[in-house]
Amino acid sequence: MADRVPSVAELAAELLGRIGDECSPAERSVLESLASGHHSHVHTGLDTPSFGERLADRVARVGGSWGFIISFTLVLLGWMLLNTDVLNHWGLVFDPYPFIFLNLMLSTLAAIQAPIIMMSQNRQSHKDRQDASVDFETNIRAELSIAQLHQKVDLLLDKADVEPDGRRG
């Protein structure tokens, strides 16, 4: 006798204890694949990042590193030292104290770097949400598969007339 494949509504009631309309989209997707008998693997569907996205990721990775912070601090200290002591001897100071040109460059860098880093963070957040969704769907699949196996074991135990603790009934 061939086993009848249960419907999505039957699986929802049997395995989740709810009607099909109460299921989340991820649960419904898993139930549909179980009902069809097709156990597909979940794919993230992430696209290949564009040049701008790769650049934003790189800027965020470099700009948020200790190497960048230390080297940038050294450049700033060098700039200030150069414009106060070294070039002052020859009268060649091009950005005297209070370093207005340096402030302009720092403001420009911050104005450009902040949105680029935010683009990278938004992209990473999107990837994290997709990964969490895939993990959730995988967990639902595992839970439903375990529930199905549990039902099959219970059915076998009933057919063999064996109690759940292993004693014959």
Automatic annotation (TrEMBL):
Keyword annotations: Membrane, Transmembrane, Transmembrane helix
Superkingdom assignment: Bacteria
InterPro entries per record: DUF1003
Keyword Cell membrane assigned: no
Tagged with keyword Chloroplast: no
Spans traversing the lipid bilayer: 63-82, 97-119
The protein's name in its UniProt record: Putative membrane protein
Native source species: Sphingomonas kaistensis
Organism ancestry: Bacteria, Pseudomonadati, Pseudomonadota, Alphaproteobacteria, Sphingomonadales
